[in-house]
Give the backbone structure.
Amino acid sequence: MNELSQLIGDIYDTVISPESWPRVLERITDYVGAARSILILEDAIEPTKSVFYVSFNDPEWVKSYLETYLLLNPMRLSSIGQVEAGMVILTSDVMAIEEYARSRFATEFLAPRRMVDVAVAVLEATATTITVLAFVRSKEQGLADELLRQKLELIGPHVRRAATIGRVLNQQTLEVSIFSHTLDRLDGAIFLLDKRATVLHSNQGARTLLAEHPEMIAIVGGKVRASAQQTRELFETALIQAGEGDNALGTEGISIIFGSAEGRAIVGTLISLVSGSRKSLGGSYRAVAALFIRELQFDSPASVDMLRSHFGLTRREIAVVAGIVELGGVPQIAAVLGLAPETVKSHLKSIFRKTGTSRQVDLVKLVASAASPFGRGK
């Protein structure tokens, strides 16, 4: 237990010292029982432009993954659009181990390096990006098991919070950490606030929100101010609690409704940034909370939800559709998923029947018609 507590403290220290991520990842890797780990953001629009930290020194291995095998990872294709922040995913959760072993990813990328399996903890999932902490198991360690899952479930939430909302903070400045460049890509509004609600950083979504809903929320004197008196009091109390740490607000924060108009509600979630060794900064620590605000409304369903709920496609069939969109042909899909081409064709036949289509191009159009409404940035 002491080992885990110390490790959690080290994880939160990365908020202050992001250069310590490789060392901390190495410790996490040892704790969960893996050979290597990568903290990586994968961008659906520009897959090769990924941001990451690694627990090892092997530039060629990383280069090979980014340039060739990232898109050939069968776990990525099998779980595309079906993951949520906080999930821990083992290979066995999304596909048969035998199929995985036959995939190009396993035979060309893992096997020559005496690696056999990958497990991931999902830290963040948006319309266009997914941030994961991936662990690679060696041949000696064997396939990822339930013990590894249990340890990831313990450590994952702390890594998730430190990596997703962490900032490089010190007594003088607020600098942007490894994920800050994604802030403007997120559709929701994000504010980083000090204990007096002063805005230290905001994304484009926040600026758009302020322009569109001045009757609900505004910046007055550099501070976030809710228009409704009751909301303002709740927000001010929650911000004070955020400065006291996770024990006050909880690790998932507190949700606040800022207002509603024309059937659409503006809902914010306030999450404390004060935890672990960061408290040692005391009054010098400027940012105490992250405020995430989004508009809740009836949106068009995302592609995966549409394929699953409206057409009744199975997880494997959805993976095949994703393969058609991303890879193009049956041979390529078969190689990535570790399936025989005939099996992929059989899945396609079922997909055509369920969706009322007859060609792969029609499936692409079907997915495009249900494209996510979330902003993709510039």
The first strand starts at residue 36 and ends at 43. The chain has 16 helices and 14 strands. Residues 146-164 form the longest helix (19 residues). The domain at 2-164 is CATH 3.30.450.80 (Beta-Lactamase).
